[in-house]
Amino acid sequence: xxxxxxxxxxxxxxxxxxxxxxxxxxxxxxxxxxxxxxxxxxxxxxxxxxxxxxxxxxxxxxxxxxxxxxxxxxxxxxxxxxxxxxxxxxxxxxxxxxxxxxxxxxxxxxxxxxxxxxxxxxxxxxxxxxxxxxxxxxxxxxxxxxxxxxxxxxxxxxxxxxxxxxxxxxxxxxxxxxxxxxxxxxxxxxxxxxxxxxxxxxxxxxxxxxxxxxxxxxxxxxxxxxxxxxxxxxxxxxxxxxxxxxxxxxxxxxxxxxxxxxxxxxxxxxxxxxxxxxxxxxxxxxxxxxxx
Length: 292
Fold this sequence. Notes:
The chain is of the alpha/beta class and 292 residues long. The chain contains 9 helices and 16 strands.
């Protein structure tokens, strides 16, 4: 059984929660960047999606293109995920939901579900959906894990949200899509890990994007120089770039301009990168893929 936030007029589809048993908690937060790309298809950067494991609980934040495939790569079963939180309703953040099980598919597969209940003796509760709407200040608080929702600035999209996850004295903030946001900076003060989106003007120009379109993109996202200002104010133990626009942006495109205003630890995220947030923060990069 799971709950999902409904998408009614003027409301935002945000949260799917699976009700599964909890066991003993660990003392760290494990973050896996399932997809670090943007709407542009790229085999080495799938659509934006982050898996957060806090103690015995697992949560998915956004479900971009290929989210289910990335979960399969790291051998995480979808049924073991407690919930999915969406930052906003841009398609690149939710096109993976049909794979994960969109509510409307229940009717489309009604015959198959009936057969499986009879033949495989599967419980109908496995596809039951309950609806819930969330907004600024909403807090999931269960089993020692707190997830706090806060608004960010992704105009004209409104609302758009970031998330803060707290567990066992450790903390992670996910920016969602945003321009420079003072509200995000407040929620990310001295956080252990800040995963922040970024757009590279240089890489966009190399990709042949017209200057007018680049200006539109930068009005809704942060450049590396702007991200540096955010990091300087928030002072995370580690900052990591994800949801990288365009996905062809290189480490040089992102780190060099960041260093103009920020000297703290910062990493360029890649698909399947794992960040273990404990007394120490450990970063493990995935092996290169041959799929290009």
